[in-house]
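dumping this here before i forget
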Amino acid sequence: MKGQFTKASSSFQKAISHQLELMLANPIFNATPKRVAILKYFVNQTLAGKGRDIKDDMEAVEVFDRGQDFDQTVDPIVKIQTDIRRE
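structure:
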C-alpha cells in the first residue's frame, strides 16, 4: 500500500545501526544523551517499519521514561523535544 513502511531486512538493519553508532561516536556529533536516545528510537522504529506510527505518547513512554498515564498538558517535555527535533 502507498505510504506503508516495511520492516528492513536484518542485514540492512545491522548496517544502518552500525553507521548510526559510528556517527554517534564521532566527536563532531555533539548531542545530549536524551537526543541520542531520541535519534536511536526514531531510527529503530523506522527500521522496524513503524516510522509512521510514532506518536508523542509512545515517545514519552519509550524515550522519556514516562508512565502510561503520561499527560502532555501537565508535562510538556515531549512536545518541546519534538519541536526542537523538527528544527
